[in-house]
Design goal:
The chain has 452 residues and is an alpha+beta fold. It is built from 11 helices and 18 strands. Strands 10, 11, 12, 13, 14, 15, 16 and 17 form an 8-stranded antiparallel sheet that branches. The protein has a 5-stranded mixed sheet with strand order 1-2-4-3-18, covered by helices on one side. A 5-stranded antiparallel sheet has the order 5-6-9-7-8. Bound molecules: flavin-adenine dinucleotide (FAD).
Length: 452
């Protein structure tokens, strides 16, 4: 095994003896405690090549991280170099072609800013500070996704460093197997240095949040479910039970007050959006209604996701269908009377283009489920961490009779292994690609891909 200190690179490299070690190894998810052999901060694709080549020749492994939003699932980093891409920030947009190229460390909000006034947008999720690359390699479930599908399938080409340290180009014609695998499998086949993708012609959306008292309970969710069943593909929405923490950033009247939020985004005119939204206003008297026309840059703020690192323990499950019994089981675990220690529990509407397989799709083509459940809590102390983890288990168990057969890479915050995310057919194809491009297992991704 080589000594990380022999890695001769021009970019910053921190090791356990460096003064900045504890800062260097910190992930966005502060509940993780990553202990790699070193943390490298590449600035160029050739820095990445040198690091991966060194790892391969010295019996080490490499894992890439844009921000550490997804750090909870990666498992042990023994003998592994953590490669943080935050200094690879190049963005180029071609408005005439409706395409963009982003380097591995670009954040969602940075790409959003650079598209201002272009008439085009990418497929953003709810968080402004995920890396576009990590979000996209794990599928990319967007506010615009019921209309356009998963973000990974807007990717037209990928620049990546493979396990032997070579920089390669992958698209439908060159290295198509690697191109297929990288689109959805969470980056376990190569280290991506840049993504090229097609943009979509969206310059305004009607979007926002409705807040209701959490006491409305299960009937509010029945009504939302019925509404969601008839909403068009252009309308994406999320129902949540949320208990905003007692923090200065939260408006005083909402601190520690359980609420229901229904957040959503509609691609279409404000008048049509307002008309489509109106049945939801009959659920009860909203505490707040922030729906309004906005530029798509606003989309990563409507869900009120944290915009700075926080400690989080989360879990997810796909939900095939949501009959009243499933809603009752869910509300018993996370509703206002449940004594839940969770910060939030949500059901995100799937269907539409999320359920249709596009031609030439990557490893994630579609999800066959009506909803996806995600829930999380903030482990402020070890007792709370235990209570949160136990409740997440209980929510999963409660929904088991309606659970889908597959999971979703981006929401997988436990080290469950690839086989809990993808069908055996997709796993076996991912395994073939891994054997071809990384037979010695130099590259570590978000979930382990066991080769059988
Ligand atoms: C508050 C919050 C909101 C979220 N909302 C959404 C949402 O709306 N939709 C959605 O789809 N997801 C969402 N997610 C999940 C998020 O997209 C994933 O956690 C994703 O992995 C984040 O990417 P990252 O690079 O920022 O995180 P990281 O933890 O840095 O990366 C996650 C994984 O991506 C891979 N990876 C990252 N960069 C590279 C690279 N250059 N080459 C190869 N592999 C790489 C690695 O396997 C890494 O372990 C959310 C997460 C949080 C915490």
């Amino acid at each position: 095994m080589g000594d990380i200190k022999e890695l001769n690179i021009e970019c910053q490299l921190s090791t356990p003896s460096s003064d900045d070690w504890d800062v260097a190894r910190l992930a966005w998810n502060l509940a993780t405690d990553l202990r790699p052999v070193g943390v490298a901060f590449p600035e160029t694709a050739s820095d990445v090549s040198r690091i991966v080549e060194f790892a391969g020749k010295n019996g080490l492994r490499v894992t890439a991280q844009g921000t550490g939003h997804g750090a909870a699932s990666i498992g042990s980093l023994d003998n592994t170099i953590l490669l943080k891409t935050g200094r690879m920030t190049g963005i180029s947009v071609d408005p005439a072609a409706g395409t963009a190229r982003v380097e591995a460390g670009v954040l969602a909000r940075e790409l959003g800013e650079s598209l201002k006034g272009s008439g085009f947008y990418y497929l953003p999720g709810t968080s402004p500070d995920v890396s576009v690359t990590g979000y996209t390699l794990g599928g990319g479930m967007s506010w615009l996704g019921r209309n356009y599908g998963f973000a990974c399938n807007q990717v037209s080409a990928i620049e990546a460093v493979t396990a032997d340290g070579q920089l390669v180009h992958a698209d439908h014609e060159s290295n198509p197997d690697l191109f297929w695998a990288l689109r959805g499998s969470g980056g376990c086949h190569a280290i991506v240095t840049a993504l090229h993708f097609s943009l979509v012609p969206v310059s305004e959306v009607y979007a926002g949040a409705l807040l209701f008292p959490a006491q409305l309970g299960a009937p509010a969710l029945y009504a939302y479910r019925d509404w969601a069943a008839t909403s068009p593909d252009e309308f994406m929405s999320i129902f949540r039970f949320l208990r905003p923490p007692d923090l200065p950033q939260v408006p005083e009247q909402l601190r520690n007050t359980p609420v229901i939020t229904i957040t959503g985004a509609f691609i279409g005119t404000p008048a049509e959006g307002e008309r489509l939204l109106s049945p939801l206003l009959e659920i009860g008297t909203p505490i707040a209604n922030t729906f309004q026309p906005m530029p798509p840059q606003g989309l990563t703020h409507i869900n009120m996701d944290p915009e700075n690192p926080v400690p989080v323990i989360g879990h997810h499950a796909t939900v095939r269908e949501l009959p009243d019994e499933a809603i009752d089981a869910f509300v018993a675990q996370v509703g206002p009377e449940s004594g839940s220690p969770l910060l939030l529990a949500e059901l995100r509407r799937l269907g539409g283009a999320f359920g249709r397989k596009p031609e030439n799709a990557g490893a994630l083509a579609s999800l066959d489920a009506d909803f996806i459940m995600y829930a999380c809590g903030i482990p402020m102390n070890p007792e709370l961490a235990q209570a949160v983890a136990a409740r997440l288990d209980d929510v999963e168990t409660a929904l088991l009779p309606w659970a889908g057969t597959e999971g979703f890479m981006n929401f997988s915050e436990r080290a469950v292994g690839m086989e809990k995310i993808y069908s055996s057919e997709v796993c076996s194809r991912l395994g073939e690609v891994k054997r071809r491009w990384d037979p010695d297992g130099v590259i570590v991704g978000k979930q382990e891909l066991r080769l059988v």
